[in-house]
Amino acid sequence: MRFGIFYEHQLPRPWAPDSEQRLFQEALDQVELADRLGIDHAWEVEHHFLEEYSHSSAPEVFLAAASQRTRQIRLGHGIVLMPPGYNHPARVAERIATLDLVSNGRVDFGTGESASRAELEGFGVRPAERRAMWREAVEQVANMMVMDPYPGFQGKYFSMPVRNVLPKPAQKPHPPLWVACSNRETIHLAAQLGMGALTFAFIDPSEARHWVTDYYDTFKKECVPIGHAVNPNIAMVTGFSCHGDAEEAKRRGNDGFRFFQFALGHHYVFGKHTPGRTDIWKKFVAVRDQIGTDALGGGTGCIGTPEQLRASLREFQSAGVDQTIFIQQGGKNRHEHISEALELFAGSVMPEFKEREDERVAKKTEELAPYVEAAFKRKTAMAPLADGEIPTFPAYGLTVAEPPDLSKMPEANRRRYLTYQKMKEIAERA
């Protein structure tokens, strides 16, 4: 099994002038530590306007910074919001490829559609169409990262002419594709499209087995890859705290994870929010004791001692889960406690699960190979353009109907214009 850490960049009120700066710098320190410890992935969300719950609105910037402080850990977008109202598909392709280049091929490209009112209405995205927007955009971003040139697209939610989208990623044909899954319906969708499943349902290990079975049954029978490669992997997100004393682990981990769930519910389910004024932490504290631990759901198996974590992870491993992702930064969890927990986990728990990971992956790849081959036979790929079909377009400067009045131009502009005219004449003769 592989392991990841997960960042919402939660920041409960009250805020000091340097709170956000400290939050981001401590998160970078944690990713650097995780890299040294041999943890496999660092995942970063994209959210907008979700005060206290998530201050991660520019994950590509954070991950780029992390790429220069690390050497081995993979850098995961968990996830990029794909409706074009948030991110134009060409800009997504450019950013993913650039991050892949500066990280030397360490990017995982997680995708999602978004669901909060604050975000959807803030960017003018129609809730009823977000799934269709996501699907259209993901397929075209994959094409943009591979095709030279991209043949252009006339879609329902975005259109663009023929362009060569640059740069191209280091990983070929493109970084692994993932999709956020919050229920078993989206597990089937991930499998049908050949994408990895990033599951955020906080289920316990016994339930995980059913999700894994659903995924691979669907993958083997129905997969038609949305991209140019498949990524048949399942990652489970869970709470995290590791300490030698079980009660101390709970004290450090439960409250942060409980706020994570409460703030999520506030922004997505039951909250009434006044931008810049609502104090979610204050609301949480007022009802914390009434909530108890019921709100934590099945995501507490990795809050405990090394022995307790080992037992829970063995169940995930037995169920066929490929990666467990830890929510270690939630609520007011302290940086030093997070670092201590990661060090204890890496030293006392992780080695058992790393021991035969390469062998497991090789065996799984071999077993799935015929199904992958069958999946690509079912796919109808976008056709590339022959050289003669690629349109040529002139620069705007060459399409001006009337030449400018040189006598009225500033001297520097006049010289530049004449230089370009000379370049044009030379180029046309060539």
Features:
alpha/beta; eight-stranded parallel beta barrel; 14 helices
What does this structure look like?
The protein is α/β, with parallel strands linked by helices and 430 residues long. It folds into two domains: 2-378, Alpha-Beta Barrel (TIM Barrel); 394-429. Helix content is 47%, strand content 12%. It contains 14 helices and twelve strands. Strands 1-2-3-4-7-8-9-12 form an eight-stranded parallel beta barrel, surrounded by six helices. Strand 1 (2-7), helix 1 and strand 2 (41-44) form a beta-alpha-beta unit. The longest helix has 25 residues, at 246-270. The relative contact order is 0.12.
Silhouette = globular
CATH top level class name of the largest domain: Alpha Beta
- Please give the CATH architecture of the largest domain: Alpha-Beta Barrel
Class derived from helix and strand content:
alpha/beta
Strand order of the largest sheet: 1-2-3-4-7-8-9-12
CATH fold description of the largest domain: TIM Barrel
User: Low-confidence segments, ≥5 residues, pLDDT <50?
Assistant: none
Report the sheet with the most strands, covering strand number, pairing sense and barrel closure: 8 strands, parallel, barrel
Task: Write down the Rg.
Answer: 24 Å
Helicity, in percent? 40-55%
The end-to-end distance, rounded to whole angstroms, is 59 Å
Count all strands and give the number.
12
Number of helices, where a helix is a run of at least 4 consecutive DSSP H or I residues: 14
Percentage beta strand:
5-15%
H-E string:
EHEHEHEHHEEEHEHEEHHEHEHHHH
Chain-averaged pLDDT: 95
The CATH homologous superfamily name of the largest domain equals Luciferase-like domain
**Number of domain modules:** 2
